[in-house]
Input
Amino acid sequence: MTAAPGWLLLWAEWLLRASLQAAALFAVLWAAEPLLRRMPATVRHALWMLVPVKVLLPPALSSPFSLAAPAVQPAEGYAVGLLRLFADPLRAHHGAVGLGPEVGVLSTPLQELGWQPPASAVAVLLAALFAVWAAGVVRMLYLIVKQQLVVSRVVASGRLVESGPLAALLAEAAGRGGPKPRLVLAAIEGSPFLCGLLRPTIVLPAGLPGSLTRDELLAVLRHELEHWRRGDLAWCWLQSAALAPFWFHPLLWLAQERIDEERELAVDAAVSGATLAERAAYARTILAVLEETVAAPARALAFTGAPGARVERRLREAIRPVRAGAAQARGLWAGAALFAAVMLPMNSSLEDPVFATNRAAAVVETRAA
Output
């Protein structure tokens, strides 16, 4: 009876456990949505960013005060136990402390009834699943590279603005003498956007300056500058790094939509102004840009937001954003840090017998080979 290779079991357990843990974190945030709506968008954005951060962390991350472990570990243990039973009945119960893969065969309840899992068939199935997963990862990486090339071509074909009224307007938006990204005018019909993690660049459609007022154009530039100051491009790449290996996870895609939306709301709240009149004018700017543009190239932070963004909510929060005083903001950020500390580690101990057993199994098989 041919069992699944140790490395294949390790891959399947990692993917399964990370997926379950991300789903649990998503469920908690989704259930807390009524409470989140009362927080500033910057805090909401940070909390939703925990979902892609979670899948990039080891599933065995442990903490003595993890509140997620009692809820997640039983489901994980059951799912991983079934995986190991079907994939390799010879090691189905070798996760106990002190037992390793070299210990004699222990029978399972199903084996005692005379049923033997078709280990060879399951090994083939796991190998097929791995091939499908790897193909999905390669496709995601291809799309990321392709989208980045589209953005690069748009920037390369544009005209760098180094002087004149637009350059002066960018300097005013950034604060005179302050650092700022490059400004490029491109022959596109898309939305203004920020791109370039290593060489930040604000791209304006060539026809947009002539269709917006000076104040509206200043608001657009301040919006993209706020993305740059917040480091949103780096967070976007982290989202892509999480989506590439977990392209099949629907809740991770939903979390990305929420992250994109909250990021735009956070930037709007930062630049919309202090008075109601200023915020209303900013909301009109959003509508003016939407009327003049279509979707921006992917892999960029566009003024009009991500495709499918809920414009109504953005306009509503632009006029009446959720803001907090200094003391309240400190309390909210402390609460967010505490939430991350108790939710990101989803193991209750520093020992992970399942992973330790399969790692040992993989080592033994490698030496035997």
Observations:
- Confidence is low (pLDDT under 50) at residues 90-108, 350-355, 362-366.
- The CA atoms of residues 63 and 348 lie 6 Å apart.
